[in-house]
Amino acid sequence: MSLEEIADRMAIYDVQVEYAEALDSNEFDRLDNVFLPDGVADYEGIGPCEGVDAVKEVCSSALSPLTGSHHFLGNHWARIDGDSADAGCKFTAQHVLAGAPGGDNFIIAGTYTDKMVRTPAGWRIKHRTLAAVWTEGNVDVTQGAAAGYEMD
Question: Does the predicted TM-score (pTM) go above 0.85?
Answer without folding.
Answer: yes
